[in-house]
Amino acid sequence: MNPISLIGNLFHEVFFRPIVNILVIILEQLQLLGIPGSLGWSVILLTLIIRLLVWPFIASQIRSAKKMADLKPHLDVLKVKHKEDKAAMSAAQMALYKEHGVNPAGGCIPALIQLPVFIALANAIPMLFDANQLQKVNDLLYFPNLKLIAPPDPHFAGFSLGDKLIDKTPFVGEWWVLMLIPIITMALSFIQSKMMLPVKPLQVRKEDSKVAIKEKEGVEDTMGAMQSQMMFMMPLMIGVFSYQFPVGLSLYWNIFTLVGIIQQYLIAGWGGFAPWIKIIRR
């Protein structure tokens, strides 16, 4: 078996098939309770389950990012001290992180988990709406009593979870309502991105020379510009994806992000979004 097939089979068995089964189990339980919009609530509950599973990893990532922000004045000193020696700078930086228990790679774990889950849902949700693929869905289920007789009702909160905004005629009819979804997606993504930014003024010590101060200011300006670009570009990109994906997938993404905002606030506060909160409260 070639590596690509091996990875595909691994993804199928570790992510795709379990997610389909969990989604169907939740769906059928909600249907038994007679809850309207069962499929939408199933996506929400599945999202919450996934978010709870990755909660410890993301919490560790947030704490690590907060520590890194607190260490920034020390990093600025190291950058000035080792400005001519990148190897020494890298070694000193890693030593500083190790001393304070910071893992720069800690943020990779949640992303590594979320991405395959997102891909699995992107494939699973359209299958549930398609009567022609109902047998494929049933073949994925672990237990015979879980088999679906008919595709579930895709309607939830006035939307059809299988709809794609990109398939609608722009500026006509329900397009306006569906357009709210990528807007909400972008707004939530922007808030979360903004919260992840620390609010810290430029740290200047008395013993810093004028040259060092200018270098720090230059670094701050460059990093600030990059962060600002990313802060606006990422929500925009996610909004474009939301425009093209089924509503059900956007529902997953928005709930995942909303819980992420709550977690970020509980651990690190409003972060870079704090000034906006002050403006809103005026």
Q: What this model shows, in words?
A:
The chain is mainly α and 282 residues long. The protein has one domain. The chain contains eleven helices and two strands; from the N terminus they run H-H-H-H-H-H-E-E-H-H-H-H-H. Strand 1 (155-156) and strand 2 form a beta hairpin. The protein is globular and about 70 Å long. The protein starts with a helix and ends with a helix. 24% of the residues are buried. Keywords: Cell membrane, Chaperone, Membrane, Protein transport, Transmembrane, Transmembrane helix, Transport. Residues 40-267 form the Membrane insertase YidC/Oxa/ALB C-terminal domain. One of its GO terms (biological process) is protein insertion into membrane. The chain crosses the membrane at residues 7-27, 39-58, 108-129, 175-191, 230-249, 255-277.
Characteristic terms for this protein:
globular, mainly alpha, 282 residues, two-stranded antiparallel sheet
- Give the helix/strand class: mainly alpha
**Sequence of secondary-structure elements:** HHHHHHEEHHHHH
Round the Cα radius of gyration to an integer and report it.
23 Å
Q: Sheet bearing the most strands, described?
A: 2 strands, antiparallel
Helix content class: over 70%
How many β-strand runs?
2
Q: If helices are DSSP runs of H or I spanning 4 or more residues, what is the number of helices?
A: 11
Uncertain segments: none
Q: Beta-strand percentage?
A: under 5%
Instruction: Report the end-to-end length measured between terminal Cα atoms.
Output: 63 Å
Instruction: Return the domain count.
Output: 1
- Mean of residue pLDDT? 83
User: Could you give the order of strands across the largest sheet?
Assistant: 1-2
Coarse shape: globular
What's the quaternary structure here?
Answer: single chain
